[in-house]
Amino acid sequence: MQNEPLAYRMRPHKLDEIAGQQDIIGVNTPLYKMILNGHVPSMLLYGEPGIGKTSLAYAIAGTSNLPFIALNATRSGKKEIEEVVNESRMTGKVLLFLDEIHRFNKLQQDTLLPHVENGSIVLIGATTENPFHDVNPAIRSRCGEIKQLKRLTADDLLTLIKRALTDNKRGLGRQTIQISQEQQMKIADSSNGDARKALTLLESVVSASDEEDGVTIIDDALLQNLVDRIGVFGDKKGSHFYNLLSALQKSVRGSDVNAAMYYLAHLLENGDLVAVSRRLLVMAYEDIGVANPSVGPHVLASIQAAERLGLPEARIPLASAVVEMCLSEKSNSAYKAIDAAIASIHAGKVGEIPSHLKDTHYVGAATLGHEGYVYPHNTPIGSFGGWANQTYLPDNLLKSKFYKPVLAGEEKKLAGIYEKLESFKQKKK
């Protein structure tokens, strides 16, 4: 057993050994009480890597004493599922833990789902992806519980580290290790809420440390070197990556520079410069818009500079763009207007293009009635330029209003012009 990784050896055997997730499996939660009373519901566990999905499944199995089988959806086929079904027929009920359940294929489903439905197989599925996006509805409908696990706190990880250091059977308790409270806390703080990462880091630093008179002494410099090699949590293109993009945009929209910097840093550490740049450019027009029209070109210039520089230097122009967007006046009027127009079309609100707006660049256009267009540049109005009081929308849509100005930044001036022109239109009778 000692040849197995520390993180594997330290998996909890009972629910009371779970660190963190108290809102899901704490002693006062319905799920905890159900399992203690002998009822284990089928469920989906959703969350980032290393936060306890597998551990929770093993702890449920240990507490319930049900026959337990663990499979991975990427490596299991119909044969393995049939073996689970056969086991359930012999024992009456089986607890199946299926990791990466979002990879479940139709053949596996067809074999397994009837038995999950009749209760002979209790299914615990784990996924790093949003189950409402990536898990088949047939699976979701048969899982009475969908639980989103959260990243562990530093205190939760510290509890696990201390348990691993003192456990004589599964942990490192048989070794004499000189490790300070500060060093333990550094491991916890550096692991980004990932229990597997914390225990792997602890095991690595212990294995790499020197012994003196039978005592393993943890060196600060060695620990720092290993900490620096830890990657940022979150898989590129996984749910967490898209959550980071969402959090970045919402922080910019909310004008919180510090939060925006935090999420930008995480995204850049994941290394996907293209996805980050694309989202920043969308934000410039969606959230800043015509309140500050200069931001769009500024962000585009920052993105182009970032592409030429590459990471890590690309972070500098992108950070400048994010600061400018955070502190800029904001308006979503333009994007709301185009969405309203698209929604109108989808709702069937369409009409005939007015004849005077139709193409006239061919012989016979006048015969078809395509005439009467007034060239606005020929009729200047004050310092605005050319404007002509003529209709542009189809007759049955003349009262449609898609654009609703926001009185922010430069758009205040545009809103004034818009209202003035609308008042001019009312004079045409």
TrEMBL record:
One Pfam entry name: AAA_assoc_2
InterPro entries the UniProt entry points to: AAA+_ATPase, AAA_assoc_2, AAA_ATPase_RarA/MGS1/WRNIP1, ATPase_AAA_core, DNA_pol3_clamp-load_cplx_C, MgsA_C, P-loop_NTPase
An annotated Gene Ontology molecular function: ATP hydrolysis activity
Annotated AAA+ ATPase domain residues: 39-151
CDD domains attached to this UniProt entry: AAA, HLD_clamp_RarA
UniProt xrefs under SMART domains: AAA
GO biological process: DNA synthesis involved in DNA repair; DNA-templated DNA replication
Alphabetic keyword roster: ATP-binding, Nucleotide-binding
Similarity comment: family membership: Belongs to the AAA ATPase family. RarA/MGS1/WRNIP1 subfamily.
Name of the protein in its database record: Replication-associated recombination protein A
Source taxonomy: Bacteria, Bacillati, Bacillota, Bacilli, Bacillales
